[in-house]
Amino acid sequence: MKYRLLIACWLLLLVASVVIGVLALGLVRREQRRVVDTAREALHLKAQTLADRLALAVAEAEGGVLRELAEIPAAELPERLRAWENSNPLIRNGFLWQEKTGLLIPSPGSPATREESRFMLRYEPLFSGRVPWPATVPQGADGEAAATDARADGSLYRLSRFTREDAGGQQSRPRTAARSGCLPWFFENRLYLLAWMAPDGEDTVRGVELETMALLSRLSPLLPAQPAAGQAFAILADDGQVVHQAGSVDVTAGVRPVAAAAVGGCLPHWTVAVYDTDLAARAAGSRTVLLLTGLLVACFAAAIVAAGSVLVWLACRHQGDARRKTSFVSNVSHELKTPLTTIRMYAELLSQGRVAEEDKRRKYLEVIVTQSERLTRLVNNVLSFSRLEQGRRPYRPEALDTAEVLESVLDEQAERLRESGMRVTRSGDWGAGAVTADRDAVHQIFLNLVDNAIKYAAGGGELEIGLVRDPEGLAVGFGDRGPGIPPAHRRRLFRQFHRVDESLTAGAQGCGLGLSISRRMARDLGGDLRFAPRPGGGSLFTVLLPSGDASRPRPGG
After folding, report:
1. For residue 512, is it within any domain?
2. 212 pLDDT more than 90
3. I want to staple 116 with a disulfide (CB 3.0 to 4.6 A). Which of 111, 125, 385, 444 is the partner?
4. Is 334 in contact with 513 (CB distance < 8 Å)?
């Protein structure tokens, strides 16, 4: 029967482990795809945002140029276009075209420079009439909005304006409605931009050729200045060549972008590309990650099966473990209760705003921090209770002042003492409390005795603590005026889990472990913990701590 139960439990563990492993692999694979897809989607959104910003910046520059074109009087157009070419780096060439006559500026018969000749050659199909001018909406309300938006980017808007030193403070003239636009023009596999407008009531078209590189130099700051490690952002021309790049990734070495977005508008077929070598590496290494994850899950499942098998075997062989664990949990609960109560009490006082003075609030917070640190040490000590029973609890002797440790305990429990109505009196020689012992152990012994007095002897209203030095060591007495200990319980007072008659302790929580631990620690330190009825009623607990080398823990302690 025993072996059948072991086999059944082992099979259940095996099936559960396999199911958990399969589910874990599926979840890991799904989570990996989700993380990569989320990262790629974020990069796509980033690329689209940058492309929109570039398109908006180009539109703002175009709007500023068209606005200036609309303000130039026809009589001043030749002179102003020439001045604009010389003063504004964004303007490469200016022109004036008439429907019946053709190109007027620059003069087709006598170009002034080689650049003008190449300019006329580039746009010869347009200026000759073989390619019609695009049909666009008038520059009315929409044009005003574009001009207003152009002011949003001060550098681009100032760039789109030309210096008018010869205007002599001339006031702006009212603009007339006009057809206008930005014409992308490809010549010899290169992109050129032509901003033009045709004022209503005239048979002419005026415009300028924008300097592409000057425009791009103003667009490059729109890319992130310092991309993350392994990332790069690039502006790609229509032929895929990198026009501008931000980031240290070598995008010319055949690296494909993980996200791209078209700029559109005046920059057709231009894109903003995002490169992320880390994302590409994660995507490429997904199979390796899945393989390693599968091995890890398999090891984990094997560990579960092995550990479960051992636990099942131990459970069948040692049925008394449950009872011992229950006792151990009771021990832990008792030992942790006092510091937890102190922490909660001070925390509630602070949270309810019952402490008005800043000094007290600071002091209470210090007590909470101290008790939290103390709680960590207590957890380690309580968890080693089984080793204490075997005489293997670790002790770290050091020179300490017993009076200082007592004052620390009383400060921590001051609020509980006040609320219980107990008055603490000090007697004996508090200046002769120097011993060599484990501070944590001494602190815990004193804390348990004060805690017991508060829980069981608060009705007496008195707690007297006395220090007496004799040749053998130091005696620390804790005397109260409580109901005392009945004679029938005195022999079992220091046994584990023993409590006095419930009629005396019904209103107090505890598991009867504090005195047992305190006596064992005191004896491990080379001393003792004793009980005696107090004359006049109550109880007297005396902690004996040897001084000097005599107080060092016993071998194995």
Report:
1. yes
2. no
3. 111
4. yes
Q: Residue 166, Cβ neighbours under 10 Å: how many? A: 10
Question: Taking residues 396-402, what's their average pLDDT?
Answer: 92
pLDDT digits (tens, 9 = 90+) for 311-329: 666 666 665 445 545 655 6
| DSSP codes of every residue in 217-274 | HHHGGGS-SSPPTTEEEEEE-TTS-EEEEEESS-TTSSPPPSEEEEEETTEEEEEEEE
Q: Residue 493 sits in a domain of what CATH number? A: 3.30.565.10
Tokens 């989607």 appear where?
A: 41
Q: What percent of the chain has pLDDT over 90?
A: 14
Question: What sections of 151-234 are H helices per DSSP?
Answer: 154-160, 212-219
| Cα–Cα distance for residue pair 220/243, rounded to 1 Å | 9
Looking at the chain, the number of H-run helices and the number of E-run strands are 18, 16
- The number of residues in the chain equals 557
Query: Where in the sequence is the domain holding 437, given as residue range(s)?
Result: 393-551
Residues 403, 542: Cα–Cα separation, whole Å: 15
In a domain, 323, yes or no: no
Which residues are registered as beta bridge partners of 105? 96
Residue 406 has pLDDT above 90, yes or no: yes
Q: Identify the weakest region by mean pLDDT among 132-141, 159-168, 474-483.
A: 159-168
